[in-house]
Structure prediction request, 427 residues.
Amino acid sequence: MTTGEEQKIIEKIIAGELDQFRILVEKYQNPVFRVIYKIVGDYEDAKELTQDVFVKTFESIRQYNSGHKFFSWIYRIAINNALLFVKRKKSFLPIEEIPYQIAEQMPDYEGRDHLLAQSISELAENYKTVIILKYYSDLSYADIAEMLEIPEKTVKSRLFDARKILKEKLSKIDFFSSFQYN
Amino acid sequence: MEKLEKEDERIIQKKIDGLLSVQEEERFNELMKNSLQARNLYRGLLDIHRSLEKDSKYTPQIDFAHEIMQTIKSKHAQQSIFSKTNKLRLSAWLAYAAILLIGLFIGSLVTYLGTSTSVPDTNQISGTIAATQEQNFEYNRDGTDIKIQEFKTSKVKISVISINSEDAVQCLISGNNTGITEKNISLQYADGQFHALETANDKLQYVCSGSVVFQICRNIDTNLSDSLSIQFVKNGQTIKHLNLN
Prediction:
């Protein structure tokens, strides 16, 4: 779907053709869910938040500025809501509780991957956002820059720093965990 | 060990994203050949990059489109058409004036059509054929004003309902065997929203906000054997329930 086609759909929605919104839901529900899921770390919470985001998007569709891409707008709503949710909720579950919860949904999930997820959740917001948008939304640097309203150079810089921080975190965990088995 | 330059770190990061220029590629190869620190950094960052890519594949797929649309449609029917950004442009007194004018006009028209071809002088109109004003009802509370005025001629009875409310007000109208249908209901004025919902339990349902004037017209011969019930609901609570004879 081109940007122009999307814009026409939005105009129809504003004109009262409610069912047209379904087209946007079907296109963006998984990308939005992925981003939210990565931030909040819980399937049910992410599911509920995703639905809330689409309802909020619909309710404020008249405020959508056609000068920006629709996905930038909806991702921003999604990220803001997810980050706010995380701030209000208690912090990440203890390690020993996670493998059981995750296993219900992703049988192949391994311990180290959980550590990666936890490390991402502990990143500062600006780093976390860029990592999630880059790896879990398949957005280009230009798209991320437009969405966050920052220069592309800043996006790259934050991503590079975020990777480095994750590398150092996981290096320490790997270093200490190697002693357990020696 | 010599610390890596910022620019060299940047080149290593760009290598992971596949964004190196020809000159940068040359510098990268040089770093891999000559710098243990550069090789360790590249290996570590590449490991993170691959872990992130692998992790992104673990996110479960969803299909909530049906649920989302159900929620939106439900909210839209009850809330989104009652946006609080709608401003009341018509003040209450203008709406009431509209009721009076409508009532007088309808009464005169029915009397005219029902009696002679000429418009009778007001003084000549007798009680049985003149449009007479029946009962009045008013409700003013919490930003919601409701006024009902009834007019009766020998043939019809007209209930004119005026609602002036920023919040949505639901009107449930039941005929109680009077045979009232949506054909008996007509919107006279709307500077707001007036929306018909699906009939529930034999009751006609309308949702209003802003300034709305509508009327219920009943034929005296067939529709007045039983009373007309009108229930006004706001925020899920009945604010008034009337039985009009």
In short: The interface with chain B takes residues 18-19, 21-22, 25-26, 29-30, 33-34, 37-38, 43, 47, 50-51, 54-55, 58-59, 105-106, 108-109, 112-113, 116-117, 131, 135-136, 156, 159-160, 163-164, 166-167, 170-171 of chain A (CB under 8 Å).
